């Protein structure tokens, strides 16, 4: 038993009708597990810690994260929101989400209750695909601002590191989830194709309008917070037999990266960390989307003047982001 049997469960004891529906799952994921990226043993090196240590959260912060939605205000906001809605719709289809597994579609980003939970295999397909996409925009934005700074001989004012760190953080999410499954050829092909399309789309979109692109990422992260809130709920309700088990072994890479305390290393604890990360990305990108892209400093890494310290933003609990007047003045 243990992690090995995780993926056998969804494929055992299914009726013929259900089995037909789950073809996608079987192609996305394989049923056996092996260590897919073991640390390379070398003569001199003992270990390689992450270059960006995780800043950490208090338990209160992690528990207080909730799904939120920033209503679109401009045409650009509306465009970004509709694109994310389309992406969510396509993801629901790709994951094979049945009607009874849907949340209230009138409030798709905030409602988390559904008649039927997703299976663990559906969850894995969903989060692995989501995370492989989520690691792209920060890298593109960081890269373009870096190149802009080089060719215009201008300071960047602290945006680049936050954007690069965001994509690093997303990649850690992906690596953690890929430790929980062996990804099949079909899923690998989907990831490859999606990256080809998404990288180029982000590249063009960030050149044309970084403001709309940050808003788009803000909306994407609203979906991520929604996804992980629903996952937490299903773990807590005991809907997912393996992951609801407090003895389920989460990957070592997760324990190291988030410096997870002994006795606080269940799947629920892990998802609480990941959800808080998504909430930070949501707050940061919605805020950056409100700023002057050329002149404004990154408020999340800035020191504030004496007397103005209370203006310093904290992204994790600010679901709709800060308005420019609140943080820049
Ligand atoms: Fe993520
Ligand atoms: Fe994210």
List keywords for this structure.
329 residues; mainly alpha; Ferritin; 54% helix; globular; disordered N terminus; binds fe (ii) ion; transport; transit peptide; alternative oxidase activity
List the topology elements.
Layout: H1 16-21, H2 23-28, E1 29-30, H3 59-64, H4 75-94, H5 120-134, H6 136-152, H7 159-178, E2 182-183, H8 185-208, H9 210-236, H10 241-244, H11 252-258, H12 267-288, H13 324-327
Antiparallel strand pairs: 1-2
Helix pairs in contact: 4-9, 5-7, 5-8, 5-9, 6-7, 6-8, 8-9, 9-12
Describe what you observe in this structure.
By secondary structure, this protein is mainly alpha-helical. The chain has a domain at 83-298 and 315-327: Alternative oxidase (Ferritin), CATH 1.20.1260.140. It is 54% helix and 1% strand. The chain is built from 13 helices and two strands. Strands 1-2 form a two-stranded antiparallel sheet. Helix 5 packs parallel to helix 8, helix 5 runs antiparallel to helix 9 and helix 6 (136-152) runs parallel beside helix 8. Residues 1-24 have low confidence and may be disordered. It binds fe (ii) ion (2 copies). One fe (ii) ion (FE2) is lined by residues 131, 134, 170, 173, 224, 278.
């Amino acid at each position: 038993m243990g992690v090995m049997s995780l993926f056998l469960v969804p494929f055992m004891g299914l009726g013929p009708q259900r089995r037909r529906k789950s073809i996608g799952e079987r192609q996305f994921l394989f049923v056996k597990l092996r260590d897919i990226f073991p640390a390379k043993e070398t003569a001199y090196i003992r270990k390689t810690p992450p270059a960006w240590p995780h800043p950490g959260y208090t338990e209160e912060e992690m528990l207080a994260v909730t799904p939120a939605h920033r209503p679109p205000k401009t045409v650009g906001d509306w465009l970004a929101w509709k694109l994310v809605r389309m992406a969510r719709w396509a993801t629901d289809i790709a994951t094979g989400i049945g009607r009874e597994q849907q949340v209230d579609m009138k409030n798709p980003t905030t409602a988390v209750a559904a008649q039927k939970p997703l299976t663990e295999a559906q969850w894995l397909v969903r989060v692995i695909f989501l995370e492989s996409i989520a690691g792209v925009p920060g890298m593109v934005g960081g890269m373009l601002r870096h190149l802009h700074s080089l060719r215009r001989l201008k300071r960047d004012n602290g945006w680049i590191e936050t954007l690069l760190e965001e994509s690093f953080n997303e990649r850690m999410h992906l690596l953690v989830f890929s430790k929980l499954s062996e990804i099949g050829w079909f899923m690998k092909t989907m990831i490859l194709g999606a990256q080809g399309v998404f990288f180029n789309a982000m590249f063009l979109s960030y050149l044309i309008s970084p403001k709309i692109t940050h808003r788009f990422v803000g909306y994407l992260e609203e979906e991520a917070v929604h996804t992980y809130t629903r996952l937490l709920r299903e773990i807590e309700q005991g809907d997912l037999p393996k992951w609801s088990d407090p003895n389920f072994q989460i990957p070592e890479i997760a324990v190291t990266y988030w410096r997870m305390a002994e006795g606080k290393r269940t799947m629920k604890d892990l998802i609480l960390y990941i959800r808080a990360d998504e909430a930070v990305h949501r707050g940061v990108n919605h805020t950056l989307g409100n700023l002057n892209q050329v002149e404004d400093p990154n408020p999340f890494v800035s020191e504030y003047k004496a007397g103005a310290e209370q203006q310093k933003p904290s992204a994790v609990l600010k679901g709709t982001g800060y308005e420019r007047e609140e943080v820049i003045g």
